[in-house]
Amino acid sequence: MSLLVLSAQDVNTITATFSSAELEDLMASVFHCLSTGSDYASPHRTTIAMSHHTALSMPSRMKNVGTAIKVVSVPTSTDDNRGLPASTVLMDEETGCVKAIVNASALTALRTAAGSVLATRSLLSKPPTSLVAFGAGKQIEAHVDLHIRAFPSIKRCVIVNRSRNMRLENLLSELRRSHPLVALEGLAADDTTDVRNAVSHASVICTATSSTRPLFPSEWVSPETHLNLVGSFKPGMVEVDCDLIRRAGTIVVDSAEACAVEAGELIAVGLRAGDMIEIGRLVEDRQGRLQGEIQMTKGDVTVFKSVGVGLQDVAIARHVVSKAESLAIGTIVENFHV
């Protein structure tokens, strides 16, 4: 039996063919499966401390989709700008052998951003016109790109980074090439006046940082703003303050069980799993069809908190491998299992 290997370049070629709607529907099916108790297995991630990284291992299986294990390494230093090395191993359901090894560095950001876009579409009351993003890594690149593709109403985007460094400038250049009709601006976090102005006029705010303290105070955020918080994955990590979480009423999450032990912002205000609503209970596709009567407390802002679930990795990896097979992309290692 052969093994398919997909490099970062292979994955980029394949994902360039995906539409925003296609990715939203894919993530909607994942979240709906997770929240309705469909046939799946997704044990809690295993964390191992390395010399310069925290290695996360996430095995998962979705019925009729597949079984996969993703390994991602998160740098322990905030000065490490090399991104998050990640690989996904996709299994063959019949033989139990490894079917494909996929470079997942870009896929982690893509599937997370697709979930955020789905949440924005489901929770925001009107078409967004302005987007503010905190961070300058692959997550923010994917979040900005997918939001602009999904919502043509967005005409302005501000990206806030720790400093106006080359990483930010390169990101802005790339996004300007892809979206020439959108006004894109970069700010350093210490440009307090400009950052406050951007936040106060934002329709949507996306955060993807490793911060351990709030990036901005609640008072800067205007009513009816929607926030996607995807950076924190440990109790000590927070991107927004407690006041902002309280303003949101019922918090919508990817996994209530995971967020109850990993989402620092929610832990800080004492939220338990039963206090949260999983997005999979609200939608089964990107059109946001309600699944019955869901009791939610309304606030003056909406918040989607995502720590990531392994089922997302199974779904996106299987989708990529299927497209690779149809397009004859990738390197095949013959007789790998002989």
Q: Major beta sheet, specifics? A: 8 strands, mixed
How many separate domains?
Answer: 2
Percent of residues in β-strands: 15-25%
CATH class of the largest domain: Alpha Beta
Question: How large is the count of helical segments?
Answer: 10
- Average pLDDT level: 93
CATH T-level topology of the largest domain: Rossmann fold
Task: Give the uncertain stretches in residue-range form.
Answer: none
- What is the H-and-E element order? EHHEEEEEEHEHEHEHEEHEHHEEHE
- What is the terminal-to-terminal distance? 7 Å
How many DSSP-defined strands?
A: 16
**CATH architecture tag of the largest domain:** 3-Layer(aba) Sandwich
What does this structure look like?
The chain is α/β, with parallel strands linked by helices and 338 residues long. It has two domains: 3-107 and 311-333, 2-Layer Sandwich (ornithine cyclodeaminase, domain 1); 116-309, NAD(P)-binding Rossmann-like Domain (Rossmann fold, 3-Layer(aba) Sandwich), CATH 3.40.50.720. It is 34% helix and 23% strand. It is built from ten helices and 16 strands. Strands 1, 2, 3, 4, 5, 6, 7 and 16 form an eight-stranded mixed β-sheet that branches. The chain has an eight-stranded parallel β-sheet with strand order 10-9-8-11-12-15-13-14, sandwiched between helices. Strand 6 and strand 7 form a beta hairpin. The longest helix is centred in the middle third of the chain and has 19 residues, at 105-123. The mean pLDDT is 93.
